[in-house]
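Intended use. Records like the one below are meant for learning the mapping from a protein sequence to its folded structure. Do not use them to infer anything beyond what is encoded.
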Amino acid sequence: YYQAYLSVAATLFVAIMMISLYRSDDKVADVFMRGVKYVVSLLAGFALYLVLNKIFMNFSTQSVVSYQGADTLGKLEITKLPRKFIECYLHFFYIKWNGINVTKGMWALVIVAVLAAAIVIAKNFIKKEAPIANKLLFLLLCAILPIAVNLEYLF
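Structure written out for the chain above:
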């Protein structure tokens, strides 16, 4: 298991929902229900992983490695949750960027690309004749995106 897979799946789900709202006239209720199904599938997959991991670790002489907190996966302290949500946003906007990609040039390029994409999408979406509910859900998904991208920080 690689904890970033959860973030990749969550990000794809959010992106699919955003594209659906942007490109078509899907009803908000349909997109919302699809989102609920995505969340349930993510949680079910995560729960299945935790159960299977526990079972197989009982039969193994090895322990889970502590790299990047993999040994504490699934042991979330509720009191740390607000800080972890903030970290999702800080890492998304590269205010608190760490890891192997800390070069300033890469940081600047990603920021410019994200801002340019956001401006183009916002400009076109505002002009589009979509129901206000679609636009509001789209904005909510934009707000959720940093959490989806950095979901591993929550766990």
